[in-house]
Design brief:
Blueprint lengths: L15 E4 L4 E4 L2 E2 L9 H9 L9 H19 L11 H9 L8 H22 L13 H9 L5 H13 L7 H11 L4 H12 L8 H11 L5 H10 L17 H13 L5 H21 L9 H11 L7 H23 L19
Antiparallel strand pairs: 1-2, 2-3
Helix pairs in contact: 1-2, 1-14, 2-4, 3-4, 3-8, 4-5, 4-14, 5-6, 6-11, 6-14, 7-8, 7-14, 8-14, 9-13, 10-12, 11-13
This protein binds acetyl coenzyme *A.
Acetyl coenzyme *A binds next to helix 13.
């Protein structure tokens, strides 16, 4: 038996390749670094869904259809925001998305992609006592997400958010994508598959890490306190959020891609935070190396995700929802790929409990 399915190959995919030794991520033939230099999220969507969803329009038409889907989701779900406003943002997002029709067509897929963009911003505003802002279907998806939050949607900030969503759009058979593929393999609809992905993504060992990264930076406060704070956390047996990865034995290439986006697009706005983060990163890598010399533990995507999303004005409790807004493109592609070519996913367990005693 393999603990945590470590090293088990459970699917064949044309969507992305994660090379944990070489530190490389390829998404449909493109190195992840090439996806941060400008493409709209709509382009990444077209790339991931090409050949999988029938009647997929050209990127421009897909952008228009996604804009219309944002309107549909807002019209359908805005009235229900107050009903879930006492839940955590991820629980609220999951509860609202679960109410979308459970189809398997392009319309369903587009509403599902639209939903976290519309709902993350709307929920954040409702929870702080402000009215939600309706989407504008003609806007680029990333720009509209910022605008719906009530934040500036200038070119640099739009490019930064689009780059982030591209970077996290797919990543092999990570826990949430596997969850989505398992559900899809039963032939349940895309909404069911995505809802499973959301559940898995929420956990702090997966997509829930970047919020705690901000908590860690806040608690450390200044660079000179980093080493002592991190050593004390490790002494308490805590894991350092934003470090370590199941697959990568070197730096997560997404971390450096995002680090570049932050300095090129948000540079001066995030200057002080970046300096602190660099000091914390250096101290953490040293502490982890000293404590676990045999287990390479390097920085992962969540560390710089935290800085980028904070720089864009998202609250730390909403970071995982923004992650979902990008990863949902991959969940849907994997779900469709699984249905098209895969069997029901049904592994076995090894029973180690007691057996009934046999009558003599
Ligand atoms: N801080 C301190 N110690 C760590 C860390 C960490 N971040 N990561 C792993 N370790 C330690 C473990 O405690 C374990 O020690 P032990 O052998 O003494 O028990 C050893 O390194 C090996 O770790 P595993 O449990 O085998 O690592 P696994 O592959 O199961 O976990 C994971 C990977 C969950 C990402 C882990 O590194 C971790 O918890 N990191 C912090 C949370 C985080 O940043 N999550 C985001 C990941 S990226 C993403 O999902 C998008």
């Amino acid at each position: 038996m393999t603990d945590g399915l470590d090293g088990v190959i459970a699917a064949e995919t044309r969507l992305s390749m994660v090379d944990g030794v070489g530190g490389r991520l390829v998404i449909r033939g493109h190195d992840v670094e090439s996806l941060v230099d400008g493409p709209r999220f709509e382009t990444v969507l077209a790339l991931l869904w090409d050949g999988l969803l029938p009647e997929l329009p050209s990127t421009d038409d897909l952008g228009r259809a996604l804009g219309a889907a944002r309107e549909t989701v807002f019209d359908r779900l805005a009235a229900r925001l107050a009903l879930v406003s006492d839940l955590s943002p991820m629980d609220a997002l999951r509860a609202l998305i679960a109410q979308l029709p459970d189809g398997d067509d392009l319309d369903t897929a587009l509403q599902l992609v639209a939903a976290p963009a519309v709902l993350t911003s709307a929920l954040a505003r409702v929870c702080s006592g402000e009215a939600p802002i309706a989407p504008e279907p003609d806007r680029e998806h990333a720009a509209d997400m910022l605008a719906m939050l009530g934040r500036p949607a200038d070119e640099d900030r739009t490019r930064a958010l689009a780059a982030y969503m591209a970077v996290v759009s797919d990543h092999g058979l990570n826990a949430s994508t596997f969850a989505a593929r398992v559900v899809a393999s039963t032939r349940a609809g895309l909404t069911s598959a995505v809802t499973a992905g959301l559940g898995a993504l929420k956990g702090p060992l997966h997509g829930g890490a970047p919020g705690p990264v901000i908590d860690m930076l806040d608690a450390i406060g200044t660079a000179d306190r980093a080493e002592a704070w991190l050593e004390a956390a490790l002494d308490r047996g805590e894991r350092l959020m934003g470090f370590g990865h199941r697959i990568y034995r070197v730096r997560d290439p997404r971390a450096d891609a995002l680090k570049r986006v932050i300095s090129e697009r948000l540079g001066t706005a995030s200057g002080h935070r970046i300096e602190l983060a660099r000091a914390v990163e250096t101290a953490a890598l040293g502490a982890l190396q000293r404590r676990k010399p045999d287990r390479p533990l390097d920085v992962n995507v969540e560390f710089y995700t935290a800085l980028l999303l904070e720089g864009l004005g998202f609250a730390s409790e909403d970071f995982t929802c923004v992650f979902a807004a990008g990863r949902i493109a991959g969940w849907i592609a994997h779900a469709v790929e699984q249905v098209a070519g895969g069997r029901l996913i049904r592994p076995q367990s090894h029973y180690i409990g007691p057996m009934p005693s046999r009558a003599a």
